[in-house]
Specification:
The chain has 299 residues and is mainly alpha-helical. The protein has helices at 14-52, 58-80, 82-104, 117-134, 154-160, 164-217, 223-243, 245-268, 275-285, 288-296.
Length: 299
Amino acid sequence: MTDSTTFRHEDLPALFHHTDRAAISRQRESVQATRAQLLLLVAAAGAATLTSAGAPRAFAALSALAYAGVLAVGVRATRRRARPQWQLNRSAAEFIKSLAWRYAVHGAPFGSEVADPRATYRTRLEKGLDELRKMGWEDPRTAGLVPEGGEVTGAMERLRGMGYQARRETYVRDRLIEQRDWYRRKTEVSRRATSLWSWTIVLLTCLGLLFALSGVWGPGPGAGVTGLLSSAAAAAIAWNEVRRHHPLIEAHTLIEQDLAAMMVVMQTTITEASWPTSVYETERYVSPQHTDWLARHSS
């Protein structure tokens, strides 16, 4: 039996955990702001439709309030910089996570031949985070939210001190396979969401078409209803584009295939001499930048 260990999510540095929580919080905030704006726009169109159909003038006031709400949500989101901070914190979290794994299993540039891996780790960490700070990332250490030091955890040192076979087995099981399964789950979620929103858009568009045609041969329901359906369909299309379900399906599928192929290679043909480079390449596959590039260039 190989003397392996388990490297858990909790074994990563405190700075990772803080940036990971910040990314999740800012993502939620950004998504909720976009959702609120789209719903308010549809509500404003619906209230305006009722007003034009002879409903009490209070509905006109509701329409105006809804439009004002769209502006207010947009201004707040801009001031809070939720979306940029979400992306910057996610990049920081994944960068720290990748660096920690490479350090722990002797991945490049922290191979066995490195004289002072801790110093190299800190230098690489600060260099990468400095680039993110230049783009506006808010370093929690500056505000005292995360204490200085402690970049290398005890679990990272323990794993680094183990033999090659143990490090390889731990990396393949707890990093590579876990990431492959994560991309597989995300792909299935995106497929279900794509199907749901595609059918919603088709349904709203078909209803709009039906009502528009009924107005050609008869009185029809009126332009207000058709406009409301158009607004709802447009909101559904915009939401589907914001969530990027289709391009992410292709990106996550490609990365999952790459990780599956790398898993086979790591378990069969990789030698200890080529191990650092193989780990580095695997970490490149799972970087947010690589995923974003694939999503942007998907067909």
